[in-house]
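Tutorial handout. Part one gives the primary structure; part two gives the three-dimensional structure as tokens.
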Amino acid sequence: MIKSSEVYFSLVYDWMKEELLKQPVIQADETTLKVNRDGRKAGASSYMWVYITGEHDDSGKKIILYNYCRTRSTEHLRNFLSAYQGTLVSDGYQPYHTFLEEQALARISAIYKLDESWKGRSCEYRTEHRRRILKPLVDEYFDWVKEQVKTCSVPPKSETGEGLSYSIHQEKYLRTFLEDGNIPIDNSACERAIRPFCVGRKNWNVIDTVEGAQASAIAYSIAETAKANHLKPYQYFEYLLTELPKRVTQKKDSSFSLDDLMPWSSELPMSCRKIK
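Part two.
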């Protein structure tokens, strides 16, 4: 598996990454894993990051990429996205899980409900309606939050108090979705994308080597991107192992391309496709 990932599947991974970095919105999340032989003391945590195309992306290219890193340093984020010029959505904010006040939950719920009703609409439609209808609700929400903090309605050191304060500190970023219909209101789509890896981790518990972790990242990336594009993962891997050996020697040719092998390609055989 490690050898196949290094020689063949890494070509598909790198090609998908190039496409991902062209998208206007990327969502990111991460989870921990254990790697036995990574040069550190036993039990040290490593991280598997996941990057996906924006939830509202309408390019027809659904991409899910995993990236193994030894630490949670933002340097890894910078390295992976060094050539990226779009908008990154990530979880710097978790108040929806910590607010206990019914008023806060009611205000947030109203905003979510309206935005969800526009999910199938165009980017332009969402942008216009978010600015016209949601912005006053968001303004009202932050006015309410600031008033609670100012009047010390809840203990500052409580979970609710800390959530309110953090909400204010993140206000600039939390408002970004109002200006661009392509930006999702939260990062739940990325959290769903990382779930298959978390389920697998419960079964195999630990990865033995760094090379194994990197191979896992590539394999999960291809499998999950295949599923997101309505492919049968097993048949798609089988097809790649048939076609990629023919392409390896062409990597340095100017005509080298893997477009026809991408999970969203219309040129893939029907045997790889799920019947909708």
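Part three, for discussion. The chain has a mean pLDDT of 87. The CA atoms of residues 3 and 215 lie 8 Å apart.
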